[in-house]
Each structure stands twice: as C-alpha cells, then as structure tokens.
Amino acid sequence: MVYDHSIHYTRHTLRQYLPMSGKAMLNRILDILRMEVNFSGKSFADVGCSTAYITAVIVDEFKPDIAVGMDIHQPNLELAKQRYPHIQFQTINLNEDSKPETQYDVLICTETLEHVGELTTAIDNLIKLKKSQGFLLILVPDEIGWLGFLRVLWRVIRYGYNGLNCFQEIPKQKFLFLKYMWSLLTGERVSKYRNERSHWCTHFGFDYRDIDDYLQVKNVDFYAYNKFGNRYYIVRET
Fold first, then answer.
1. CA–CA separation, 89 vs 114, rounded Å?
2. In the chain, where the domains are located
3. What is the DSSP string of 177-220?
4. Does the keyword Transmembrane helix apply (predicted)?
5. Global pTM?
6. What does the pLDDT look like over 75-112, one tens digit per residue?
7. What confidence tens digit (pLDDT) does each residue in 32-78 have?
8. Class for domain 7-142+208-235, per CATH?
9. Contact by Cβ (8 Å): 188, 205
C-alpha cells in the first residue's frame, strides 16, 4: 500500500499557512540548503524519500549532478519512479549495518529516524553515506516536554482516546496514557516506552535527545536547533 506523503506539502487548506505545516517545513529545508550548500557539481541523496516529492523539489531547484532517492518501502519507490524518471531510486534499510559503495556530497533525512527500529545503526548509516567533507541535514519531530504534551492532548481532543491508535505500538502497561503524559510534563525520556521493533508507524516514544547523545558519543560535530515542532541537525565534517 502506498501512502502519498506529497499531500502534506501540496494540499490547499488553512492549516498549510501555519508555521508547523508541511509546506512551511519544506520551505525551511529549502532555505537551509540555499544558505549552506553549493550544489554545483555535487551529488545528492534523500534518505527516506517516500514518494520523493521533497526529493524532486530539491532536484528541480538546485540541479545537482547526481540525484538519488532512497527508501525501504518498495511501493513508494515504484510510484516515485513513475513520477520522477529523472531521479535515481534505491532501496535502503537503515536498520541494517551497511558499507555503501557510493558516498554523497549532500544528504537529507527528513521525518524518517523517528520510524526506524535501530536508531543508532540508522545514524551510523547516514554518516557512512556522507562524504567526509559533505553536508547532512536531519529533521525529526520535537514531541517531548510541554510541546509533546500539547501535541498528544490535541490528538486526544481531535480523535478521542479510542481513536488514538498511536499507543498500540507501545508495550501495554497499566495507566500507560497517564504515565506517558507525566513523562512528557516532567521531561523524562519517553524512549523508555519503546521496545525492540523493526519500525514504528507513529512518533510515540521517539525522543530526539537519543540522537543528541549518540552523535556526542561518536564525536560527530553537529549543530542542532528546534523550530516550530521539529528539530534540525546539520552535520558537516565527519
């Protein structure tokens, strides 16, 4: 089954004018690339490209010499190949340790790491895909602390608790919802609620501080900041 993520960036609703919308997020990605990267003569890869809408927007604007979209979901890649024949596509499983044959000058990985089962392996794979003097942009959701609390609360108000299937992936325990919300309010790591899985459909239990910690352990020089519900990581020399 294909879920067409392009609707998050192209649908015409009032929500798209909000600073937390998919369209606003895409514009921020483009602004970062304009400021940070010269694409002339460069290779570019979008890791976790889904149906490659963002990939195509970047390729059409910056025109890298080589452009590759990577994803684990084959139906998404098949649709992407039909829509964007000028872009190369490859299957990748970030959960599996790999030794890439090709490295890239510019990499992005947006809205992907919150869904992988092996976070540290996925980060290692991204670093190995980047040339030593290359540029890597990672984007993940900021859903911890008060902001995370408000986001979950909004989902409960909008869908009702019975419609909140987000917790179905988290191992069951007594008073799970209340415990999770308390963890958000007190700043505890919500990643403790996740168990070992190959992937996660929802964001629940994802804590970007685990990325911060691992990059520091690996002595990776990075710059990170939060803006309108997302955390942006910029990695250069590795």
1. 22
2. 7-142+208-235, 145-193
3. HHHHHHHHHHT--GGGG----SB-SS-TT--THHHHHHHHHTT-
4. no
5. 0.92
6. 999 999 999 999 999 999 999 999 999 999 999 999 99
7. 999 999 999 999 999 999 999 999 999 999 999 999 999 999 999 99
8. alpha beta
9. no
